[in-house]
Write a structure and sequence with these properties.
Helix content: over 70%
Order of helices and strands: HHHHH
Mean pLDDT: 91
Number of strands: 0
Largest sheet: none
Length: 137
């Protein structure tokens, strides 16, 4: 289904959906959202691009294999979980926060990095599954 309308729309929707996924990721600390939902929105953005422009062009656009994002995300989440034990001699998964919040992002802390790890794992797992199914079909 590579229509002109879909190709034209996907070139505009990809960056908008990726920015929206980051918004949902950052919004998740205080309101519904977070790493899981933001990762799904980002994966959907790339799937839409794959439908419109073909799987090969989308893989070129991503530049790395989506399967690499899964261990990277797990590492980020793991390090954010054990960092309170290493840095401040506190229990695992205790939230550590920076001194001053950043205007747009808000308070920076270990929960944000945990969400970023989940975000990367969800993008990697979703795209790996969908791209594998698309290649075999």
């Amino acid at each position: 289904m590579k229509t002109l309308i879909l190709r034209s729309a996907s070139s505009y929707l990809l960056p908008v959906l990726l920015i929206f996924s980051v918004f949902i990721l950052l919004r998740g600390h205080y309101l519904p959202g977070g790493g899981f939902v933001g990762g799904l929105v980002a994966a959907i953005a790339f799937v839409l691009d794959a439908f419109a422009n073909g799987l090969k062009k989308t893989k070129i656009l991503i530049k790395i294999h989506p399967g690499f994002l899964m261990p990277l995300g797990l590492l980020v989440a793991f390090l954010s979980g054990i960092s309170p034990m290493i840095i401040a001699d506190m229990p695992i998964m205790t939230g550590l926060w920076a001194g001053h919040p950043i205007p747009v992002i808000g308070a920076i802390g270990t929960p944000l990095f945990f969400d970023i790890g989940v975000y990367l794992v969800v993008i990697g797992a979703s795209l790996t599954i969908i791209f594998t199914i698309s290649e075999s079909a």
